[in-house]
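Open question from group meeting: does this chain pack into something compact, or does most of it stay loose? Before anyone orders reagents, we agreed to write out a predicted structure and look at it together. Recording both the input and the output here so the notebook holds the full record.
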Amino acid sequence: MKRNQIAIDGTANKDWIITETLNILKRKEYKLRLRREPTCLYCFELQKSITPKDFTVDESYYFEVTFNPDADRMLYAISFSQGSKGFLIDTCNVYTDNISQEMVQKLKLDKIKNHKNNLANAGKMKKQVKLDNEALAF
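Structure tokens returned:
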């Protein structure tokens, strides 16, 4: 699976970049809209649930919003075992507590969560170092 990370520093930029990436995927025939469910993906056009054993994540794009981590998004290019292709735009780490372990592994959500935790911890460390340095300067 090809994983891409894109850092974005404005909301307008995020929407434009996601739209442009989605347009590229649509030209590659990833046209069916998907929604993440606790144990599967739901395809709107087919009105059908797709279980993890019946799909493959071909590409994923992590859109990191530098000023607001809650706005981070993932865009997945997904192929179904029966040949169709679709896309899923998902929030990062929202409602991951109600998702099956099979879906977590398939979408690599554990890696995203670890990445975000590492970033959050790095931010706390920077603040702590700055506070420590200010204390030393006094």
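Observations to bring back to the group:
The first helix runs from residue 11 to 27.
The longest strand covers residues 55-65.
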